[in-house]
Amino acid sequence: MIAIMCDAVGRLFQDASRWVLAPGESLFHRGDPVVSMFLLRSGRVDLVRHGATGTRMILQRADAGSMLAEASAWSDAYHCDAVVVDASEAAVLPRTTFRARIAGDPRLAEALAMSLARSVQAARLRAEIRSLPKVAERLDAWLGEGNSLPERGRWHELAAELSVTREALYRELSRRRRRAGR
């Protein structure tokens, strides 16, 4: 996050409540009314949507300094689930306070607009990667964006991010290990 956004978000959430969250907890669920806005101070939270067939798709992988579902400030209900992946701490601000502060500070509104624009760009990149027909192509594109493979126990999270089955990702990783061993 760029410095101006960090300063603006710091001001926005300066007197927010603090929630300590354990892995597996949820901050909100799809369909819940939007009453609070969240800034992740530490840890990791995934914004997840489940498809009709049960497919788990990660919409955002948020870490420290990230706002969660910031576009929800202008929605009646959340459009995804927020699931704590690693022990986390979040600053929590009532949505009414969040919106009033933005309305009263043009620099803050501009900083938020910049953040939302970056979020849209990241979402478009994820959609582009997920539109590739082969698991190998998706993995290559994801790695090509400067990402590195997570530790073995977290490969299922990468499968969700790429919107492929765990088994398909594991087969591709196995193929790559075999080729590298030749």
What would your notes on this structure say?
The structure is a single chain. This protein is α+β, with helices and mostly antiparallel strands. It folds into two domains: 3-119, Jelly Rolls (Sandwich); 132-182. The chain is built from six helices and six strands. It has helices at 3-12, 95-103, 106-131, 135-144, 155-162, 166-181, and strands spanning 17-21, 26-28, 36-50, 56-63, 67-68, 81-94. Strands 1, 2, 3, 4, 5 and 6 form a six-stranded antiparallel β-sheet that branches. A hairpin with a 5-residue loop joins β3 and β4. α3 (106-131) packs antiparallel against α4 (135-144). The chain is elongated, with a radius of gyration of 18 Å. The termini are far apart. The model has no long low-confidence stretch (mean pLDDT 89).
